[in-house]
Amino acid sequence: MTVPTGVTSALATDLYQLTMMAGYFRTGRHTRLATFELFTRRLPANRRFMLFAGLDQALEYLEQLRFTESEITWLAALPALSRAPAGFADYLRRFRFTGDVWAMREGTPFLPDEPVLRVTAPLAEAQLVETALLAIVNFQTSIASKAVRVVHAAAGRPVLEFGARRAHGTEAALLAARAAHIAGCASTSFVEAGRRFGIPLSGTMAHSWVLAAESEEQAFRDFAALYGPEAVLLLDTFDVRLATAAVAASGLTPSAVRLDSGDLLPLSREVREILDRGGLAATRILVSGDLDEWRIRDLVAAAAPIDGYAVGTALSTSEDAPALGGVYKLVEIERTSGTRAVMKRSPGKRTQPGAKQVWRLLDDGVAERDRVGLAGEEGPDGAAALLERVMQNGVRLSPTPAIDALRHECAERVSAMPESIRSLDAGNRYPVETSAGLARLIDADSA
Fold first, then answer.
1. How far is CA 204 from each of CA 9, 227, 250, 304, rounded to the nearest angstrom?
2. Pairing relation of β-strands 187-188 and 159-161?
3. pLDDT of 166-205, one tens digit each?
4. In a 3-state reduction of DSSP, which class is residue 355?
5. pTM (2 decimals)?
6. Which in 137, 140, 303, 377 has the greatest CB count within 10 A?
7. Are residues 54 and 106 in contact, defined by beta-carbon separation less than 8 angstroms?
């Protein structure tokens, strides 16, 4: 049985979701079909696109959604729910998510106002899940969107995710490792992510290993004696040059050495020269220490002899853009007169009405533009529809792909985006157009 990896409690929500549910129940509207869409209105700083992640945990949450008896008893004592109608507690006892979900594949690049996930369910069900779905998707999408930039900057060199100790809690560390791996990171240092998701693990030694030994050379010898040719030796506890010379003269053949501080460009060149002179041309150089995509890009551009980058804080917290403003909005509701598309008109927070689809048009394998239109419309000739049904009547339609498959698909989708969009530098915006049908609906609803 799969161990849950995310939110499991029905109380993982905001209070107003529950007070609205009680109101819907009282008015009898709780069973009316409603469609909500999850999207972002704008790109965070330094982002040219976002990378969708977190779908597996979102579906897991919806499948397991239940109110326990102790939760129902606790809710009944809340002042905010003291006027909940008779029968509401029994409704919660029977509560299950019974809706349909459409979503992009994890690892799909997307743009503002493009729904990445669409929920159609009885109104009370679709309302309750807003908070958890946003928390799950916003976080993993933020991390994946940062990771894909770091991976791009490394230009084919492996990126090792080392951010667990800087993450906002161990669950965040676990899911950050997952999102980063989907986005292209080669491995993680977080052991539970390796067990839970099958992500390759990587790690070296800490400075404390060297400081606890009788000498630096003895620390290297003891570590190599245990781990043999797989040993990775940390060089910067005292003096990088002296440590590298000691390794080269020791007869040890570590698979790699790591630098965790200092000016990495000249240090990596000196380390490479010393290792090569000592017959250790096969020993790789890994670096860490407050790295991000900008520092990595500069090192790559300077032809630093670095074979891999271990990235921590910048990755596990999406340091420069730590909060994604994803929203979950009602776009369609069943009324007595039939289903009605709805939209907000609030300045700066307008929404687009109706259940929607996103199509991506490619020209010779390169994405040319996207179109957002109504779900019932025909897409442009040859365009790929990005939203697919992944849950029906509260049940997943297929197992979650293995994480390696998600990672491979993500790499293909990202490589299909124009280089100007993948670049870290400012450039042209990727075009997203509105379909004729959606434009007419917006005009009619705005009148």
1. 37, 10, 19, 21
2. parallel
3. 999 999 999 999 999 999 999 999 999 999 999 999 998 9
4. coil
5. 0.95
6. 140
7. yes
